[in-house]
Design a protein that fits this description.
The complex is a heterodimer of chains A (363) and B (436). Chain A is mainly alpha-helical and 363 residues long. Chain A has a domain of 216 residues. Chain A is built from 14 helices and four strands. In chain A, strands 1-4 form a two-stranded antiparallel ribbon. A two-stranded antiparallel sheet of chain A has the order 2-3. In chain A, β2 and β3 form a beta hairpin. The longest helix of chain A has 29 residues. With 436 residues, chain B is an alpha/beta fold. Chain B has two domains: 214 residues, 3-Layer(aba) Sandwich (Rossmann fold); 153 residues, Rossmann fold (3-Layer(aba) Sandwich). Chain B is 44% helix and 13% strand. Chain B has a seven-stranded mixed β-sheet with strand order 6-5-7-8-9-12-13, with helices on both faces. Chain B has a two-stranded parallel sheet with strand order 1-2. Chain B has a two-stranded parallel sheet with strand order 3-4. The longest helix of chain B has 24 residues. Chain B starts with a helix and ends in an 11-residue tail after the last helix. The chains are: A mainly alpha (363), B alpha/beta (436). At the A-B interface, α3, α6, β4, α12 and α13 of A face α1, β2, α3, α4 and α6 of B.
């Protein structure tokens, strides 16, 4: 009943090819954006949300969502398994830093875009093996990206401006004379970048490019036969995906951590982002956000829950054991969700939508 | 519904108890007890919490009790930042923060300056943060990596019979190929030029469980000393490879991250005779006995394995907590005894810390750590290190006195690094002559 599209007629071609063809979806997205852009700031103004919510929860959630989105374009839509996500993020972060450092009066957004483009270029180079190898073999090949980039950033002092500790410290985010230095303004900045890029991605996967990715993913031989050029398509996927990861990396450095070391972008981070899309839903924009929420927020919630038990109910658990239990519960929940819905949380929403369409009259 | 009400009630009660205990000095313990670095995290924070329990058992700091809350970071920068943000305002505000993780410390570098909360980084992090003019809120107390590297050369020089005897010698710097391993290279290079020894730099890729080619290189070079600047599994592997290649462990000198029980026990007999740097003198001290008697006997000890009391990481945690408590005590002297200090006041305490031999004796920790005296210019406060040797069962100090390298040279390098950071971040360094 709630999700019925009956009565919504498409009269023009433009209407037929809208990003969100169903009215309910349009309203839904508008509501989510309104909450994110207006509702949350209002809550912050009235004091319901503290700095903590922005800087520790919402900002990293959005940044990891963007990185997961980048990987989802490559793995979910184009079917190319990659373990180099964190490396592309590192390229984005270090390239943006160097553009800001070495060019006077560089606008920050341009630096981010250039950083993303650098990541895209690196992505194309390390995507070359995908022309010949697939699946797990490609994953192993992209592993090289991970190690090479981190090694390179540590090895070549120029990238870190010869910092003795081998770290970079992000410059201030300034636009049109306004400095984004509070956690709240950084949140809005990240939210704007992520919303625009997510909408772009949502649109992109419906275009010729997106369809060619899916064709390659589903059966590359058939895709080639019907006229998609596999080399171009795959490299395009690597470039776009790395661009997204690069921007996410730049945001990670500029709007979240401030000072980053190359070691911060290690294989561990790549795996975390891969788990995000596996749990959220491979081949789904929404899935990237859901997966990021799951991986970033769930451990924090678990931790808060044990603290809550500890402080209020008085269940005194030794901290070492508490931490281990948290980790075990987290692992068990991952397994549970994957057994219940192997296609990820996004698929759950899909099923929910189907149900809502018929509810309350299933027959 | 009933349950929800109950939970809310419980939460309300919890908040009330918190606000009622606002007369306590809050220290967040953002620690890590799971994951690959759990041994270090549980030992260090176990020691720190044990010492704070001891201070409370003895009546607090001039009557002010300490209160802490743990938060698991898993040595992950994102989790660490989350923990910091969650705890910084609870219990009336955090007095200080110590993440014991380079990645988290970097994530907090800007935040602590903005929130005006002092951060200690005992023995890790940016070496140039010792320049308090540029980093007013960061305290790499006791010794930074650079002063440690200088201490290493001084010790090797003494061992050879004088620094000038190092001329013509070969020293291998076998390092973890990361920012951590590369950090001391400028110091070693400066010394190599000054003293005329040959520095051979050999990197080991993370995690370092494969060192065949590196040790082949070492065997060919026949160095006089090997400095092991390692981390985690790399240390035990290096010791075992040294044994296999017949390189005497007596000529190997490790960084302090390569100098805990957890680093040498996995190497078994291969570790015997190996020495490493430390900022604690291993042994037993009155303060540790007191912890056993007043904390563990009362069932309040933090370590699950009592055998780890006095181990390298545990002692480092106790050392950290001693310095925190002394900073708070110092702040109370200026801003009012028996009062809860704000983070800004604790920062002043850290900057005017003067833990001399007399006060160490009073604390029952004489000889355990070097005297620490900080100032607005110098946030490190000491720069002294000790060398310890593993005899197969325990660590024993082999330098009777504290070792310090060329502090003037290191200071110059720190100032240069800090000035570059200030220029990049457009920070105007404080004028220390105006600080009270």
């Amino acid at each position: 009943m709630f999700y019925r599209e009956s009565g919504q007629f498409k009269a023009t071609y433009a209407e037929d090819s809208e990003i969100f063809p169903i009215r309910q979806d349009k309203i839904g997205i508008a509501v989510i954006l309104a909450i994110a852009f207006l509702g949350i700031p209002l809550l912050a103004k009235t004091g319901f949300l503290s700095d903590y919510a922005f800087t520790a929860i919402l900002t990293p959630f959005l940044i990891f969502s963007l990185a997961a989105l980048g990987l989802n374009i490559l793995t979910g839509y184009a079917g190319q398994l990659s373990l180099g996500t964190a490396a592309f993020m590192a390229v984005g972060a270090f390239a943006s830093y160097n553009f800001m450092l070495r060019i006077d009066g560089m606008p920050i957004l341009v630096a981010f875009i250039l950083g993303g483009l650098c990541a895209a270029a690196v992505g194309i180079i390390f995507g070359l093996p995908s022309i010949r190898i697939r699946g797990f073999y490609l994953a192993a090949a992209t592993l090289a990206t991970q190690f090479f980039i981190v090694w390179c950033l540590t090895k070549v002092g120029w990238f870190t401006n010869y910092s003795s500790s081998g770290v970079i410290t992000a410059q201030k985010i300034m636009m049109f004379g306004y400095t984004f230095d509070t956690s709240f303004s950084k949140y809005l900045f990240v939210l704007s970048v992520v919303s625009v890029m997510a909408l772009l991605a949502k649109n992109m996967v419906r275009t010729n490019v997106g369809r060619s990715w899916m064709a390659i993913r589903d059966m590359d031989m058939a895709a080639e036969v019907i006229g998609f050029r596999p080399v171009r398509t795959k490299l395009m996927a690597f470039a776009v995906s790395s661009f997204y990861c690069g921007v996410a990396g730049a945001l990670f450095a500029y709007a979240y951590l401030g000072t980053v070391e190359p070691e911060g972008f290690n294989l561990d981070l790549s795996f975390r982002i891969l788990f995000m899309i596996i749990i959220g839903g491979v081949g789904s924009i929404l899935g990237s956000f859901l997966g990021s929420a799951f991986i970033v927020l769930l451990p924090i919630l678990l931790n808060m829950f044990t603290h809550f038990l500890d402080s209020s109910i008085g269940v005194d658990v030794p901290s070492g054991i508490a931490s281990s239990i948290e980790l075990m519960v987290f692992g068990a929940m991952i397994i549970f969700f994957l057994i219940v819905e192997p296609h990820g949380l996004a698929r759950l929403w899909q099923i929910g939508k189907e149900k809502l369409r018929l509810w309350p009259f299933p027959h | 519904m009933k349950y929800i009400t109950r939970i809310f009630l419980a939460a309300a009660v919890a908040t009330v108890t918190w606000s009622a205990s606002a007369q306590e000095q809050f220290i967040p313990a953002i620690d890590y007890r799971v994951g690959p670095y759990a041994a270090g995290g549980s030992g260090f924070f176990g020691g720190a919490i044990d010492y704070m329990s001891l201070v409370n058992a003895k009546g607090g700091i001039n009557g002010v009790k300490l209160v802490w809350e743990e938060c698991e970071t898993e040595y992950n920068a994102t989790r660490g930042v989350e923990c910091y943000e969650r705890l910084k305002k609870s219990h009336g505000g955090a007095s200080l923060v110590e993440p014991l993780s380079t990645g988290i410390a970097y994530g907090l570098l800007d935040r602590v300056a903005q929130d005006k909360i002092p951060m200690t980084t005992l023995g890790y992090g940016r070496s140039d943060a010792a320049d308090g003019r540029v980093f007013p809120y960061v305290f790499p107390l006791i010794t930074s990596y650079w002063n440690q590297a200088a201490g290493m050369i001084k010790y090797l020089g003494d061992k050879a019979g004088g620094l000038d005897k190092l001329k013509g010698k070969k020293i291998v710097h076998l390092y973890h190929d990361s920012a951590f391993g590369k950090e001391p290279i400028p110091v070693f290079e400066a010394y190599a030029k000054q003293l005329g020894f040959e520095l051979i730099k050999i990197p080991v890729a993370h995690p370092g469980n494969e060192q065949q080619s590196q040790w082949l290189q070492i065997r060919q070079a026949k160095p006089d000393y090997v400095i092991l600047w390692g981390w985690g599994v790399m240390n035990a592997t290096a010791l075992k490879s040294a044994q296999r290649n017949g390189y005497p462990r007596e000529k190997m000198l490790g960084v302090w991250w390569a100098g805990s029980e957890e680093d040498v026990i996995p190497a078994g007999a291969a570790a015997k005779g190996y020495s490493s740097m430390t900022f604690n003198t291993p042994g037993n001290y009155p303060v540790l006995d007191e912890i056993k008697k007043k904390v563990y006997a009362a069932g309040k000890g933090n370590l699950e394995d009592k055998g780890r009391i006095g181990s390298v990481y545990h002692m480092r945690g106790v050392t950290a907590a001693i310095l925190w408590v002394e900073a708070i005590r110092k702040a109370q002297e200026k801003y009012g005894k028996g009062k809860v200090m704000t983070a800004e006041q604790v920062r002043w305490g850290f900057e005017n810390l003067n833990v001399d031999e007399a006060s160490l004796k009073a604390l029952g920790a004489f000889g355990m750590l070097p005297p620490v005296k900080t100032s607005c210019l110098d946030h490190e406060g000491s720069g002294a290190v000790k060398v310890q040797r593993w005899d197969g069962k325990s660590w024993k100090a082999i330098t009777p006195n504290w070792v310090t390298g060329d502090k003037a040279m290191i200071r110059k390098m720190q100032e240069e690094g800090a000035a570059k950071y200030a220029a990049e971040k457009k920070i105007k360094p404080r004028d220390c002559s105006k600080e009270g």
